[in-house]
Design a protein that fits this description.
heterodimer; A: mainly alpha; 27 helices; 73% helix; globular; B: mainly alpha; 23 helices; 74% helix; 3% strand
């Protein structure tokens, strides 16, 4: 069953990708979407087995892969509760996104390619979550990176899309650099890359030290931090986050699937999968916790001032991933996975809702050109509102359960980094509420403002079927005679399904994911589940329990006041504190900084090495120099023939050897 | 049946036939192509036969032939172990593809061109099959001559400069190697490679012998800073010349290290790892950055080859099983992938007659099949898992990590830089908009071109998903090399290379470590 579940999307991707021209768009779309729904059905079957029937974990071997000396790596599919949760998230969101794309991508000439990439991505993600060893996890890790690269750059004639695609891949490679070193070091210490064997041997190695880059360091801390670098890359944590907002160049269904619900959560999944290792190092846990909290804060501040609807949601994703990490760092892996689970529903809902708005607004993504859309696209409006309620943690929605669990766990952990994370998390909850409701108010409330949009005026001029019953419209008509339409039903069904998930997922499953009794029985050792912490969570002071609700209303009220009640306030801020505004708008100047210290120096060094190094040093004193000597020598020292070449070689070698001998003294 | 001798002699005979064909210019060219293709296909079939009949459990030289000529100092002595087998397979696999790639691209003096290629094939097989050290030397150096001619006669505008540079560099080291060989045979009293591999030369002598061989192999590899001949040679060589250069000739250096340097001078190898690591570390960072700023496609891929070859040297001198096996897989993988990348460049060069990256763009629209193939090989080059490049890089770095964390740290940056220059190249060629009307008008891959590239795709995937098929025959031979190296004292250098290569050397537990503070 698991084999079919994982490989069906690959098969369909191959058919749609290689044979798309042959079988036509409709067949390609039907095959990939059908395949994904089959996989999703299987995933729910497996998940139900773990949820209700207490099924035991198992591993299905597929094929030998790499063997060398003591290293044995196999292709194998590992299934336990943790995997089952991820299977459900990945296949469900993927199936819905496939369906949604029927409507969203209806006019694209390369639809088959798009659907093939989506299915390919799903396959890679499934390989990642079913990995029974670190190398296969790395395979999935790079595979989703490839699919992400292809999908971000899907509209490859746009230079910005190409740049974003390369950036995503290369920044992720920086993470993979850490991940790779982590795997090598893990193999050195444990002598295996099998996850089960590693986790079983963790206690033996806790507290040991080994040599790394010339220094003696704690083994578990070093391993965890190296692996965590990989997690930071994939999950866009502070420092390696710069690719995620740019990734919004990809089509919106991609953002929903890859850059909200699944791929970016791979880092959280990895930390949870290897949670016994992180448990063995307090330092590593503290780093994970603090960095997660900082990311949550950073992304939330930037999200408050962005104008592009997708970028706001992207920063929101980045921020929520920070929540998941600080939960993991506080030792509440169940809570981290719970937030991952609920976040998948409401964030995919928000992205697909945003896609519906963008679809209605002819690819205009700037919220300054929205306004008053709730009357035009009411279904989208209501679905987005549900998503926002869940994201901001309104009572009894999915986010309410998971975010509360994270904040309470951070507080209850009693560590200093846990307290720090709690304080930051509470502030971020208010910021989240503020920027989320800002998005809703700017998009759906107030007056229409799209007359100035290039996309809209383009659409209105080329398709006068929208404005014909209006007759003449003057320059002061804020709608420019354009009336947005609700999306087709194939796009609305996924919104409904995700909306149900966003409302109910927390209520239904909170006992399993973070319950003190139910949790241990549910996870059954697939992650380091701390029942004491979960007990402590329920005994935190009342003010801690009420903090998220206060944050919610604070943010909502402030957003209402600033964007609906007194719309002049944002302008006033922009005018009066331009430094702060620019700092946030330019995303804390990370891109500028990285350009200045990495990209430009790399190119400069490349040019220097090439011209000064290869051409003006090596070639000049090497072959060209030898040629000059030979030519000159031939004139004057004809009897030595070409002896110079040999003596040159000898001199060079003797020099090298002398240098070597000297250095080895 | 002396299969190896036949495999060496058949292309020579075919080359003579091709060169002396009767008829007019056109007829001769047509016949030469057919004869060359048929010969290379027969060679490939013979290679398959070798592989199928090869005993993968043995480290011994198989299909051995012995004809004493000047015993004990020279003999026609052939035989292959797993390492030689796989490199011969690589050569005979690429050869027919090279002939096909030259089918239409080469129009000048076709019979002579095909003869040069056939001669090259013979010399390559001879190099890998030679069991006598002087016979090896003859084939090894002889291989230069056809390549020199291919670049010098059928090359681009600066072909004379490039071929001169190529010849000068490669000749440079080999003279020293010959002197070293003479001394070694004098001491050991035998020119048999197997005997020499078991000979324990004094540590002092090993040091100088190692350096003499190093001079030759480092140039062939090429290692930094003796790499500058490679970009020029690639740029000027015709497409098929580049494929053989990258696919097979570049493997001679690595083959030399694993066949001679490691087993014959194990103490010197262990003592000089710092030299190899330092050059490899510089090479990866330096040439990757240089590749980043290239405007010429072939130069970019040539510089990336230097970086990949640094992984080979890094892996070999990790001196453990994973490192050496990884280095061998890297050689095979690089032969396939960079050979295919040069073929890909050749495809569009044949259409537009420029290698300038800026003249392309938008090929994903106009040549979708080509864009897909190029994407595949780009990803294989950056070592995406499930392609051969990943298995190679992973094993090399995993092995190297056990010997030196610093070297691994620096070499691993190659995966970031490699992604940078390859994806940027791909974006400029395949994405965006066509640079000109002529770029947009290029036709997509022809059936012949697909027939050339498809086998390499399959081989790359096979090696990436089930590398066992390729690793298995090499394992006993590599185990023999590792056994020679086992227990040699490693150089202590200012980094932390104090871990012994075979054991996960963990320092004392925490309480012991605390007492130091």
């Amino acid at each position: 069953m698991i084999t079919v579940l994982v490989f069906l999307p690959l098969l369909m991707a191959a058919i749609a990708g290689l044979g798309g021209r042959l079988i036509g768009h409709t067949a390609a779309k039907a095959l990939t979407t059908g395949g994904l729904f089959v996989s999703a059905a299987l995933a729910w079957t497996i998940f139900t087995g773990f949820w209700l029937n207490g099924a035991a974990g198992y591993t299905v071997p597929v094929l030998d892969w790499i063997e060398s000396g003591g290293l044995v790596v196999n292709w194998a599919l590992k299934v336990d509760t943790l995997t089952a949760v991820m299977l459900v998230v990945v296949t469900s969101v993927s199936a819905l996104v496939h369906l949604y794309s029927w409507g969203y991508m209806a006019e694209d000439p390369s639809q088959s390619r798009f659907f093939a990439y989506l299915s390919l991505f799903t396959f890679a993600m499934l390989m990642l979550v079913t990995a029974d060893n670190l190398v296969q996890m790395f395979f999935g890790w790079e595979g989703v990176g490839l699919a992400s690269y292809l999908l971000i750059g899907f509209w490859y004639t746009k230079p910005s899309a190409n740049a974003a695609a390369i950036k995503a891949f290369v920044v992720n490679r920086v993470g993979d650099f850490g991940f790779s070193l982590g795997i090598f070091a893990t193999f050195l210490v444990f002598g295996t890359v099998s996850i089960d064997a590693i986790l079983a041997a963790v206690p033996q190695h806790a507290g040991q030290t080994f040599s790394f880059l010339g220094g003696q360091v704690d083994v578990m801390t070093c391993l965890c931090l190296l692996l965590f670098v990989g997690a930071c890359g994939k999950s866009a944590q502070l420092g390696l986050h710069t690719w995620l907002p740019d990734a919004m160049e990809g089509p919106t269904p991609v953002s929903a699937l890859i850059h909200a619900a699944t791929m970016v959560t791979a880092g959280v999944f990895m930390v949870c999968r290897l949670s016994p290792m992180f448990e063995a190092s307090d330092t590593a846990q503290a780093v994970v916790c603090v960095l997660g909290a900082c990311t949550a804060l950073f992304a939330a501040t930037v999200g408050m001032v962005q104008n592009d609807i997708k970028r706001v949601i992207a920063y929101s994703t980045c921020s929520q991933l920070g929540y998941m990490f600080f939960a993991a760092g506080a030792g509440a892996y169940g809570a981290a996975m719970f937030h991952l689970f609920t976040h998948a529903f409401f964030k995919a809902l928000l992205f697909l809702g945003a896609g519906s708005v963008i679809h209605a607004m002819h690819h205009e993504q700037d919220m300054r050109f929205y306004g008053g859309l709730r009357r035009h696209i009411p279904i989208t409006f209501w679905m987005m509102t549900i998503g926002t309620l869940a994201l901001t943690g309104f009572f009894f929605t999915a986010g309410y359960y998971s975010k509360d669990a994270i904040l309470e766990a951070a507080f209850a952990s009693g560590t200093s980094h846990g307290m720090f994370a709690f304080a930051v998390g509470a502030v971020v909850a208010a910021l989240t509420s503020f920027y989320s409701w800002r998005l809703v108010f700017l998009t759906f409330f107030g007056q229409p403002r799209w007359a100035g949009s290039e996309h809209i005026s383009h659409a209105a001029h080329h398709g006068d079927h929208h404005g014909d019953h209006h007759g003449h419209h003057g320059h002061d008509d804020p709608t420019a005679g354009y009336h947005p339409h609700e999306s087709p039903v194939s796009m609305l069904i996924p919104l409904f399904v995700l909306g149900v998930g966003a409302l109910l997922a927390g209520f239904v499953w909170h006992e399993q994911f973070v319950g003190a009794e139910g949790g241990a029985a549910f996870w059954r050792g697939s992650l380091a589940f701390d029942a004491h912490l979960m007990h402590a969570m329920h005994e935190v002071p009342a003010w801690v329990v009420h903090t998220p609700a206060v944050a919610f209303f604070l943010g909502l009220g402030l957003a209402w006041h600033v964007f609906l009640n007194r719309p002049s306030i944002p302008k006033w801020w922009q005018r009066e504190v331009p430094g702060l505004y620019q700092f946030l708008l330019r995303k804390w100047y990370f891109d500028e900084l990285y350009n200045a210290i990495f990209v430009r120096p790399a190119l400069w060094f490349g040019r220097q090495f090439w011209t000064r190094g290869d051409q003006q040093t090596i070639d000049r004193f090497g072959p060209n120099g030898a040629a000059d000597v030979v030519v000159a020598g031939a004139a004057t020292l004809r009897r030595f023939q070409s002896g110079y070449v040999y003596s040159y070689a000898l001199v060079m070698l003797v020099g090298l050897a002398a240098a070597a001998a000297w250095m080895m003294r | 049946m002396p299969v190896l001798s036949l495999m060496i002699l058949l292309p020579v005979v075919a080359a003579l036939v091709v060169a002396t064909l009767p008829g007019g210019e056109q007829e001769r060219a047509g016949r030469a192509r057919v004869v060359a293709l048929a010969t290379t296909l027969v060679e490939f079939a013979a290679g398959i036969w070798l592989w199928l009949n090869f005993d993968s459990a043995s480290a011994a030289f198989q299909f051995a032939e012995q004809l004493d000529l000047f015993a004990p100092y020279f003999g026609w002595s052939l035989g292959i172990d797993g390492i030689a087998l796989m490199l011969i397979m690589l050569s005979v696999f690429l050869m027919p593809l090279c002939v096909l790639a030259s089918w239409e691209a080469v129009r000048k003096r076709v019979p002579e061109y095909m003869a040069a290629f056939l001669l090259m094939e013979s010399l390559m097989i001879g190099t890998f099959a030679a069991r006598d050290i002087f016979l090896f030397y003859l084939f090894f150096e002889g291989g230069l001559i056809p390549m020199f001619l291919i670049i010098g006669i059928w090359g681009g505008a600066r072909r004379i400069y490039a071929s001169y540079k190529f010849f000068l560099y490669t000749l440079l080291g080999s003279v020293l190697m010959l002197v070293a060989m003479l001394w070694m045979v004098g001491v050991a009293g035998s020119s048999d490679i197997g005997v020499l591999s078991r000979q324990d030369f004094p540590a002092e002598a090993q040091f100088w012998l190692f350096l003499a061989f190093f001079a030759s192999f480092a140039v062939k590899m090429p290692m930094w800073p003796v790499h500058t001949w490679l970009p020029d040679a690639h740029v000027e060589a015709p497409t098929a010349g580049s494929v053989i250069l990258a696919g097979v000739l570049l493997k001679l250096g690595g083959y030399g290290f694993v066949r001679f340097s490691l087993p014959m001078f194990p103490d010197a190898s262990a003592q000089l790892i710092w030299l190899v690591f330092a050059l490899s570390m510089v090479a990866v960072v330096y040439t990757s950055l240089v590749a980043l700023v290239q405007h010429d496609m072939k130069k970019l891929i040539a510089y990336s080859s230097v970086a990949h070859m640094a992984f080979v040297t890094g892996g070999l001198f990790a001196l453990n099983t994973q490192g050496i096996e990884g280095a061998m897989v890297m050689m095979l993988s690089h032969g396939l992938v960079s050979g295919a990348l040069f073929l890909c460049v050749g495809v569009i060069y044949d259409r537009l007659h420029t290698r300038e990256i800026g003249r392309y763009g938008g090929l994903a629209d106009t040549m979708p099949k080509y864009a897909l193939v190029l994407l595949f090989f780009t990803m294989a080059s950056v070592g995406l898992p499930a392609t051969s490049g990943f298995v190679a890089e992973f094993l090399v770095l995993l092995g190297l990590y056990q010997t030196s964390t610093w070297a691994t740290f620096v070499l691993t940056t190659g995966i970031i830089l490699g992604a940078g220059y390859m994806l940027w190249l791909y974006a400029r060629v395949a994405y965006g908009k066509a640079a000109g009307a002529d770029t947009g008008a290029m036709p997509d891959l022809s059936a012949r071109e697909i027939a050339i590239l498809a086998p390499i795709i399959l081989a790359t995937l096979w090696m990436g998903i089930y590398p066992k098929s390729f690793q298995q025959p090499m394992k006993p031979a590599i185990a023999a090399v590792v056994a020679r190296l086992d227990g040699r004292e490693l150089a202590t250098v200012p980094t932390d290379m104090t871990l012994s290569p075979a054991l996960p050397a963990l320092a004392a537990p925490a309480n012991a470590a605390e007492s130091h503070h």
